[in-house]
Amino acid sequence: MTVSILSRRRFLIGTAAGAGGFSLGFHLPFAAQAQERNAILPEVNAWVLIHPDDTVVVRIARSEMGQGTLTGLAQLVAEELACDWSKVTTEYPTPGESLRRNRIWGNFSTGGSRGIRESHEYVRQGGATAREMLVAAAATLWKVPVQECSAANSVITHNPSGQTVTYGAVASLAAHMQPPANVPLKDPKDWKIAGKPLPRLDTRDKLTGKQVYGVDLQLPGMLNASIKACPVFGGKVASFDAAAVSGMPGVRKVVQVDETAVAVVADTWWQAHSALNALPIVWDEGPNTNVTSETIAAMLREGLDAEEAVVGTAIGDVRAALAESAKVVTATYSFPYQAHATMEPMNATARYTTDKCEVWVPTQNGETSLVATAEASGLPMEQCEVYKLHLGGGFGRRGAYQEYVRQAVRLAKEFSGTPVKLIWSREEDMLHGAYHPVTQCRLRAAIDKQGNVSALHMRISGQSILWSLRAEVRETGRDPAVFQGLNDGGAEGAFGYTIPNLLIDHAMRNPPIPPGFWRGVNLNQNALYVECFMDELAHEAGIDPLEFRRKLLVNHPNHLAVLDAVAERIGWEKPAGNGIHRGLAQIMGFGSYVAAAAEVSVTDGQLKIHRIVAATDPGHIVNPSQTERQVEGSFVYGLSACLYGECTINGGRVEQENFDTYEVMRMDQMPAVESILMPSGNFWGGVGEPTIAVAGPAVLNAVFAATGKRIRQLPLKNNSLGV
Amino acid sequence: MARLTINGRTREIEVDPETPLLWVLREQAGLTGTKFGCGVAQCGACTVLIDGVATRSCTMPASAIAQDQQIVTIEGLSEDGSHPVQQAWLALDVPQCGYCQAGMIMAAAALLNSTPTPSDDDISAEITNICRCGTYNRVRAAIKLAAETMSTSQKG
After folding, report:
1. Complex ipTM value
2. Which chain B residues have a beta carbon less than 8 Å from that of A251?
3. Chain B 19-38, residues with CB within 8 Å of chain A CB atoms
4. CATH number for the domain whose boundaries are A9-185
5. Under CATH, which number does the domain A305-338+435-718 receive?
């Protein structure tokens, strides 16, 4: 029997979210809000909205940029809610609303592979609490003990009588139920929605052109802008001749946006961009015009031998052990600047009036966008709002760095009440990145004839991302993030090898090129340094690289398990095909254990990557097929970096301006990727980033097996090997 | 002024005829499914069909296209996402961020027009679009799936 509760008018509460719809503790009308807040704890249920037709809207605070977090988080909420998955949709709450509600949705930041691993517990709690309130509502309606009722698939059943009611019918009543505290969460082994390879919720619109990304936004009366900042880092605008372009078609205004950048605002973007390209601008290039890739490399080389360095890990006495050793192996590696090169260039749309500023932006962190909006508008945060749009790629570029938001707001201030959409050209995007930082690394190890490693000193010299962002890092000179994947234990990125004398230290050297979080961050180069060097040591010791690693990983079974898994799948113990050579790598990062094995051939100096096997243990997996896609995609990002990725510096500026000179991997270079998902439970690790770090070293070790040549300076294309 | 036939409909569009087709589509015709990625015909996000041939619209001036040439964008590939390429993409859940996918789909549709059963080498040679999320292997699989469906439906 289905019961209508529409007669119980006193329980009906209007909602801003849809006529007749209902939000568990959300969007209560202002008059009702104060009294209703006492009856419900909105923060528990802010995740779930249920319409009378049983449609479930799950609110997602983290951003979707392709990584699948939107679908994964919805699966977790839906699992605990015990709702009908076919009726689930999602929406983003706004950061302004979250602020007004005392940050009810928690952290909006979508980076560091944290989208699911950091919020799974509270979003599941939100779903579970909502379910209990719905069941309690049905029990109240039926005047039966709540213990006699159960919920599944959006239907509540009174078990003794068999009568049923759907979620949509009791949703309004449920809002008035006391939210229970600490509802136990389901054991993942009982999951029916989470943990399953369900199709993504956001695929259809991406196949028809309907999906609206930031660059696609259309608002009535909107103007468009293109911008140029001084291409030399640290430079400024000296002068520009607005009159030269002000008569061009569609041009509304030439605006100096801040001391570094000039923009043209026009009716259409193409008009704005054409006028900007015709605009005579004189730059004051500032103090960095003598900076080149070579001066930066020299600065880092000095750090390799510097007396002073910040210690990350120190076990035993490395210097003594190296001095006593009969055999010391030394190698120096380097990793270049890389651009994010998201497919959708940076953009933001802003509308400003003297009492309100609104921004529409594809952002990895709605809250940092809101802060940037407030800063640039000069309005209090409460008078600002940010509407998040889908991202055409993020990769770390669109979270901590919000200069495009500030620029769009400054442009909108010139046209009060009229929205202005700012889109960067690809050239602007390449010249003004937040680049993967440069480092070099010198590794020295003492090995004996049995292949025992008695000491390892790993000296990293180079750039700190956090130095550019945090005052305390500038004060102490210590950036803990540079030791990603090299930590002495811990849940985030423990170093897997047991070496009795181990020293890992960092000589911070910060060239005047802005660094940033770049998918995989510091794990990328750290894994490459360690895993290529382990291969070197195995070779020096005359021991098989798998056996060599296995012995050193004996105290870290999770590290060992993923390595063993890829070795077994690739057939490490059996001979490879004719002309095929193999390489291995493993690392722990972003809370997950990952490994890769690669098969390559080198024919007439031309490298071909044939096959990759990747293993991932992220503890729990919310959507196995999406996890596989992220693992697969990691090889495109990681191998693009390894083979081609390099922003060279000359005259204080980046030399690559577009994809013709900043090459990335395309279809014809893409190897087959087999992924092994092996969640071992008991922890929650990230998925989007860790695997990138093993892509490069697995391939480089296979290249050594094929050629006998160690490549220690990235990218590979600079090493007389066709790629 | 440009006179263009877009998705089967001939329109007179008030625009400087030297404007690249990409921006005419996005800003004058309101068809934002075709994406801006590089502006130099490198990445393929702006791929549309012109008389069935995959064309990078970001460097193609509107003036270079005759009125009787058929321009098809992602919005016009099918009315409801039912084109076999779109269906194959759906079946394999290909997109990640999705930004490059309209261009990929248009390039795949053109390939299957000219080469109904493409080999791996055909796919590698013809699909040169950039995807930074790394969907290449699923794009390849979806093209093969679409080729199968198209050949089955023709036989049927």
Report:
1. 0.98
2. none
3. 19-20, 23, 26-28, 30-38
4. 3.30.365.10
5. 3.30.365.10
